[in-house]
Amino acid sequence: MNQRQRVQAAIRFERPDRLPCNESLWDGTLEVWQQQGMPAGTSAADYFDFDLCFMALDASPRFEQKILRREGGYITYEDRFGYTVRKQDGVSASMEFSDHVTTDRDVWEQIKPRFTLSGDPGEPARIDEASYFAHFDPYPGWQQARQKYDRLYATDRYMLFNVYGPWEATWRHRGMQQLFMDIATEPDWVREMGDTYVDLVLAIFDRCEQLGMRPDGVFLVEDLGSTRSMLISPASWRRVYRPAWERMGAFFRDRGIDFWLHTCGAVQPVVDDLIQCGVRVFNPLQATAGFDVVELRQQYGDRMAFYGNINVKKMLGSREELEAEIRHKVPVARQGGFIFHSDHSVPPQVSFQQYRWMLQTARAIFAE
């Protein structure tokens, strides 16, 4: 099997020829690994022969993206989505969000038209191979984006288009604390903001398809939980957001695009809802939030595939406890429905040698 076929087999709950794998790295991890012996100039995907590749959609209202200042190891910038953020420069760490542009409903009415796809063929594309987050370079034109797509698709890796979900997108321009209050006091407005955003996302997918850019799957980034509970109640999520999810699920199903979801935290109360909305692959299965892929397989059978759940804390421990972790979880992949990945992403504190050993061991356990 090539990489695309391997992942497709896993999603269909067929045994792949080897363990399907991919990984997400914190900022700085790759640089540390290269200092520890990983060949310079080689991507993690190529070195470890990962099975996925990605492009990212820009479904923002496209405010000006600009750096406000760099000082003391921190960067502060305004994002296209309509917020200001301060974070450590070049390091994955806590982020301080502020100055969200949607301050009230009147301002929303002015911003709302920005969530539309221009018919101008000269407009920059709303897709690129670089991550959306901290995307400071100009976006390519649509034809250049198509060339990037063709190059990536030719690698035979399974291709995902990444994009925020309606909750994640809305709090970025509205503000998370304000959105919490809005869900309680003005749920119809929250639903409108989410629906407006989803309209744009689906329009971008249509434009991409018209230009010959069709992914194998969509990877929706929508963090709905903390380690203890969902950020909003399951009832509120169902009332405000589930209709938009059903609409997205139907859109992707009709086009033969697999629906993948990334959501951190303890979202167990809505997993059945997610399946009913069409989600086929669930990530990252945060271990500290109570997820165990072995138990999930017993509970959900072949209703949902899983991507993640390898506890990063175990990667930072001894090889004995790390081997116990992967011996417990990797055998699930032999019947399909599991793609090897951390339960979030790998920090630079996990050494290159440790990660390489873990992946080699996991692949060997799968083949036993």
Average pLDDT metric: 97
CATH architecture: Alpha-Beta Barrel
Main pleated-sheet profile: 8 strands, mixed
State the domain count.
1
Total beta strand runs: 12
pLDDT < 50 stretches: none
Order of helices and strands: HHHEEEEEHEHEHHHEHHEHEHEHHEH
Q: How much helicity do the residues have?
A: 25-40%
Q: Roughly how many Å is the radius of gyration?
A: 20 Å
CATH fold field value: TIM Barrel
Could you characterize the architecture of this molecule?
An eight-stranded mixed sheet has the order 6-1-7-8-9-10-11-12. 40% of the residues are buried. The model has no long low-confidence stretch (mean pLDDT 97). It is globular. With 368 residues, it is of the alpha/beta class. 40% of the residues lie in helices and 14% in strands. The protein starts with a helix and ends with a helix. It has one domain (3-60, 103-367): TIM Barrel, CATH 3.20.20.
